[in-house]
Amino acid sequence: MKFSIDKQDKYCVFKLEEEKLNSVIAPLVKSEMIVLNAEGVKNIIFDTSKVRFVDSSGLSSILIANRLCKNSGGTLVLCAVSDNVNKLIKISQLDSILSITPTEEEAVDLVMMEEVEKDINNGK
Description:
Elements: E1 3-7, E2 12-16, E3 20-21, H1 26-38, E4 44-47, E5 53-54, H2 56-71, E6 76-79, H3 83-91, E7 99-101, H4 104-121
Parallel strand pairs: 2-4, 3-5, 4-6, 6-7
Antiparallel strand pairs: 1-2
Helix pairs in contact: 1-2
């Protein structure tokens, strides 16, 4: 599996450099997400700009990543989602559960905005 990880202060960008997020790749993505979460990363931006196809196990790996982030008080944001993948997400009615932005920049803005809101709500 080809991917890159760019760790920042408040978030991490996970860019999958594969065209298919299928039953071969999904377990590897899931384990990378678990490792990132165990390292204390709670906000993950999942760049899917290269992904053209996702199957049910691929969706499952995304949902697991989403749950890991939520359970640690963070956010998973999918960005640069292709039309085909977006259609599948909508058909599966996951568009109401997942945070999706058109670009990585907008994903960063969303994560940073949520972090500011948490700081305000926690009285910092």
